[in-house]
Protein backbone atom coordinates (compact mmCIF):
# COMPACT_ATOMS: atom_id res chain seq x y z
CA UNK A 1 0.00 0.00 0.00
CA UNK A 2 1.36 3.41 -0.91
CA UNK A 3 0.85 6.15 1.64
CA UNK A 4 1.00 9.73 0.44
CA UNK A 5 2.39 12.15 2.99
CA UNK A 6 1.20 15.72 2.84
CA UNK A 7 4.09 18.13 3.21
CA UNK A 8 3.87 20.55 6.10
CA UNK A 9 4.08 24.31 5.45
CA UNK A 10 7.41 25.89 6.22
CA UNK A 11 7.55 28.38 9.06
CA UNK A 12 9.83 30.64 7.03
CA UNK A 13 8.37 32.40 4.03
CA UNK A 14 10.82 32.60 1.13
CA UNK A 15 8.41 34.55 -1.05
CA UNK A 16 8.96 37.70 0.95
CA UNK A 17 12.04 39.89 0.54
CA UNK A 18 14.99 38.97 2.74
CA UNK A 19 16.67 41.21 5.25
CA UNK A 20 20.42 41.52 4.76
CA UNK A 21 22.51 42.05 7.85
CA UNK A 22 26.14 43.04 7.43
CA UNK A 23 28.47 42.32 10.33
CA UNK A 24 31.53 44.35 11.22
CA UNK A 25 32.94 41.19 12.79
CA UNK A 26 33.80 39.75 9.38
CA UNK A 27 34.27 42.41 6.73
CA UNK A 28 34.10 39.91 3.86
CA UNK A 29 31.03 38.07 5.11
CA UNK A 30 27.35 38.97 5.14
CA UNK A 31 24.39 36.70 5.65
CA UNK A 32 20.73 36.55 4.81
CA UNK A 33 18.14 36.40 7.58
CA UNK A 34 14.82 35.23 6.07
CA UNK A 35 11.72 37.09 7.15
CA UNK A 36 9.42 35.07 9.36
CA UNK A 37 5.88 34.46 8.13
CA UNK A 38 3.85 36.29 10.76
CA UNK A 39 0.50 35.48 9.12
CA UNK A 40 0.33 32.14 10.96
CA UNK A 41 -1.85 32.03 14.11
CA UNK A 42 0.00 32.59 17.36
CA UNK A 43 -0.72 30.78 20.61
CA UNK A 44 -1.28 32.62 23.87
CA UNK A 45 1.80 33.41 25.94
CA UNK A 46 0.32 32.35 29.27
CA UNK A 47 -0.33 28.68 29.87
CA UNK A 48 -1.95 26.49 32.47
CA UNK A 49 0.10 27.95 35.34
CA UNK A 50 0.02 31.65 34.47
CA UNK A 51 3.83 31.78 34.27
CA UNK A 52 4.52 28.82 31.98
CA UNK A 53 2.74 26.67 29.41
CA UNK A 54 3.32 23.70 31.71
CA UNK A 55 1.97 23.16 35.20
CA UNK A 56 3.95 24.46 38.17
CA UNK A 57 4.24 21.77 40.86
CA UNK A 58 3.51 22.54 44.48
CA UNK A 59 6.85 23.06 46.22
CA UNK A 60 5.84 20.70 49.01
CA UNK A 61 5.75 17.88 46.45
CA UNK A 62 9.27 18.55 45.17
CA UNK A 63 12.53 16.90 46.29
CA UNK A 64 14.45 18.89 48.89
CA UNK A 65 17.28 19.64 46.44
CA UNK A 66 14.83 21.19 43.98
CA UNK A 67 13.29 23.32 46.73
CA UNK A 68 16.80 24.54 47.58
CA UNK A 69 17.40 25.53 43.94
CA UNK A 70 14.17 27.52 43.91
CA UNK A 71 15.13 29.30 47.14
CA UNK A 72 18.66 30.05 45.89
CA UNK A 73 17.18 31.76 42.83
CA UNK A 74 14.60 33.72 44.84
CA UNK A 75 11.65 31.71 43.53
CA UNK A 76 12.00 33.24 40.07
CA UNK A 77 9.54 32.05 37.45
CA UNK A 78 12.12 30.28 35.29
CA UNK A 79 13.37 27.97 38.05
CA UNK A 80 9.82 27.24 39.20
CA UNK A 81 8.87 26.43 35.60
CA UNK A 82 11.81 24.03 35.26
CA UNK A 83 10.92 22.31 38.54
CA UNK A 84 8.18 20.32 36.78
CA UNK A 85 11.11 18.01 35.97
CA UNK A 86 13.59 18.19 38.88
CA UNK A 87 16.37 16.65 36.79
CA UNK A 88 15.97 19.33 34.13
CA UNK A 89 16.10 22.01 36.83
CA UNK A 90 19.24 20.46 38.33
CA UNK A 91 21.06 20.18 34.98
CA UNK A 92 20.11 23.69 33.93
CA UNK A 93 21.05 25.41 37.18
CA UNK A 94 24.32 23.47 37.49
CA UNK A 95 25.51 24.53 34.04
CA UNK A 96 24.26 28.10 34.44
CA UNK A 97 25.98 28.60 37.78
CA UNK A 98 29.24 27.11 36.53
CA UNK A 99 29.15 29.38 33.49
CA UNK A 100 28.57 32.56 35.49
CA UNK A 101 30.17 32.01 38.90
CA UNK A 102 33.26 30.01 37.94
CA UNK A 103 36.35 31.89 39.13
CA UNK A 104 38.40 30.06 36.49
CA UNK A 105 36.38 31.48 33.59
CA UNK A 106 38.53 32.75 30.72
CA UNK A 107 36.29 35.70 29.81
CA UNK A 108 35.52 38.45 32.33
CA UNK A 109 31.93 38.57 33.57
CA UNK A 110 31.28 41.77 31.59
CA UNK A 111 32.00 40.00 28.31
CA UNK A 112 29.97 36.93 29.25
CA UNK A 113 26.99 39.16 30.07
CA UNK A 114 27.33 40.94 26.71
CA UNK A 115 27.14 37.52 25.05
CA UNK A 116 24.06 36.64 27.13
CA UNK A 117 22.27 39.89 26.31
CA UNK A 118 23.04 40.00 22.58
CA UNK A 119 22.25 36.31 22.02
CA UNK A 120 18.98 36.55 23.96
CA UNK A 121 17.96 39.79 22.25
CA UNK A 122 18.72 38.26 18.84
CA UNK A 123 16.46 35.31 19.72
CA UNK A 124 13.83 37.73 21.10
CA UNK A 125 13.81 35.87 24.41
CA UNK A 126 12.19 38.46 26.66
CA UNK A 127 12.93 36.75 29.96
CA UNK A 128 16.63 36.10 29.35
CA UNK A 129 17.16 39.54 27.81
CA UNK A 130 15.56 41.28 30.79
CA UNK A 131 17.39 39.12 33.33
CA UNK A 132 20.84 39.51 31.79
CA UNK A 133 20.42 43.20 31.05
CA UNK A 134 20.34 43.55 34.84
CA UNK A 135 23.41 41.29 35.08
CA UNK A 136 25.24 43.31 32.44
CA UNK A 137 24.38 46.55 34.22
CA UNK A 138 25.90 45.19 37.42
CA UNK A 139 29.01 43.94 35.58
CA UNK A 140 29.69 47.37 34.03
CA UNK A 141 29.36 49.35 37.24
CA UNK A 142 25.61 49.81 37.49
CA UNK A 143 25.12 51.63 34.17
CA UNK A 144 21.63 50.32 33.43
CA UNK A 145 21.04 52.74 30.55
CA UNK A 146 24.11 51.47 28.70
CA UNK A 147 23.08 47.86 29.35
CA UNK A 148 19.62 48.57 27.94
CA UNK A 149 21.14 50.22 24.86
CA UNK A 150 23.27 47.13 24.21
CA UNK A 151 20.17 44.95 24.55
CA UNK A 152 18.22 47.18 22.16
CA UNK A 153 20.88 47.25 19.42
CA UNK A 154 24.57 46.72 20.11
CA UNK A 155 25.46 48.14 16.68
CA UNK A 156 24.44 51.59 17.93
CA UNK A 157 26.57 51.48 21.09
CA UNK A 158 30.23 52.45 21.31
CA UNK A 159 31.97 49.23 22.38
CA UNK A 160 35.64 48.37 22.45
CA UNK A 161 37.10 45.98 19.85
CA UNK A 162 36.72 42.87 21.99
CA UNK A 163 33.15 43.70 22.97
CA UNK A 164 32.15 44.42 19.37
CA UNK A 165 33.72 41.17 18.21
CA UNK A 166 31.87 39.17 20.88
CA UNK A 167 28.55 40.89 20.18
CA UNK A 168 28.83 40.31 16.44
CA UNK A 169 29.90 36.69 16.96
CA UNK A 170 26.90 36.18 19.26
CA UNK A 171 24.54 37.48 16.60
CA UNK A 172 26.09 35.54 13.72
CA UNK A 173 26.45 32.23 15.54
CA UNK A 174 22.80 32.54 16.59
CA UNK A 175 21.21 33.24 13.20
CA UNK A 176 23.75 31.94 10.68
CA UNK A 177 26.18 29.49 12.33
CA UNK A 178 27.43 28.02 9.05
CA UNK A 179 28.85 31.40 8.02
CA UNK A 180 31.50 31.21 10.76
CA UNK A 181 34.89 30.41 9.21
CA UNK A 182 38.52 30.01 10.21
CA UNK A 183 39.07 33.58 9.00
CA UNK A 184 36.52 34.82 11.55
CA UNK A 185 38.38 33.09 14.38
CA UNK A 186 41.62 34.64 13.13
CA UNK A 187 39.97 38.05 13.38
CA UNK A 188 39.12 37.31 17.01
CA UNK A 189 42.78 36.53 17.65
CA UNK A 190 43.75 39.82 16.00
CA UNK A 191 41.75 41.79 18.58
CA UNK A 192 43.38 39.93 21.46
CA UNK A 193 41.44 36.72 22.08
CA UNK A 194 43.31 33.56 23.02
CA UNK A 195 42.00 30.24 21.73
CA UNK A 196 40.64 29.20 25.15
CA UNK A 197 38.68 32.48 25.30
CA UNK A 198 37.28 31.89 21.81
CA UNK A 199 36.08 28.44 22.83
CA UNK A 200 34.45 29.79 25.99
CA UNK A 201 32.73 32.51 23.95
CA UNK A 202 31.34 29.94 21.50
CA UNK A 203 30.27 27.72 24.41
CA UNK A 204 28.46 30.62 26.11
CA UNK A 205 26.68 31.70 22.93
CA UNK A 206 25.61 28.12 22.27
CA UNK A 207 24.36 27.64 25.82
CA UNK A 208 22.22 30.77 25.64
CA UNK A 209 20.70 29.60 22.38
CA UNK A 210 19.78 26.40 24.25
CA UNK A 211 18.41 28.37 27.21
CA UNK A 212 16.48 30.84 25.04
CA UNK A 213 14.73 28.08 23.12
CA UNK A 214 13.54 26.32 26.27
CA UNK A 215 12.31 29.57 27.79
CA UNK A 216 10.56 30.68 24.59
CA UNK A 217 8.92 27.28 24.03
CA UNK A 218 7.58 27.24 27.59
CA UNK A 219 6.40 30.85 27.36
CA UNK A 220 7.90 31.65 30.76
CA UNK A 221 6.79 35.08 31.94
CA UNK A 222 9.57 37.40 33.24
CA UNK A 223 9.32 38.31 36.91
CA UNK A 224 8.13 41.79 37.82
CA UNK A 225 11.38 42.65 39.62
CA UNK A 226 13.30 42.43 36.32
CA UNK A 227 11.65 45.70 35.32
CA UNK A 228 11.79 47.63 38.59
Automatic annotation (TrEMBL):
Pfam families on file: CMD
Limits of the Carboxymuconolactone decarboxylase-like domain: 86-136
InterPro entries: AhpD-like, CMD-like, Uncharacterised_peroxidase-rel
An example molecular function term from Gene Ontology annotations: peroxiredoxin activity
Alphabetized NCBIfam families for the sequence: peroxid_rel
Name listed for the protein in its UniProt record: Carboxymuconolactone decarboxylase-like domain-containing protein
Organism: Byssochlamys spectabilis (strain No. 5 / NBRC 109023) (Paecilomyces variotii)
Amino acid sequence: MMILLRSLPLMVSHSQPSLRIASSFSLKTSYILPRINTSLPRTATRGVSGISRLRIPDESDLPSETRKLIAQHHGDNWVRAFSVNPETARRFVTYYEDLFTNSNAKLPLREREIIAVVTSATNRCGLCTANHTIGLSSAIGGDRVRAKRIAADHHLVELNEREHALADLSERLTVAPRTISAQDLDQLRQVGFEDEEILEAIETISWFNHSNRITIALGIVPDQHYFE
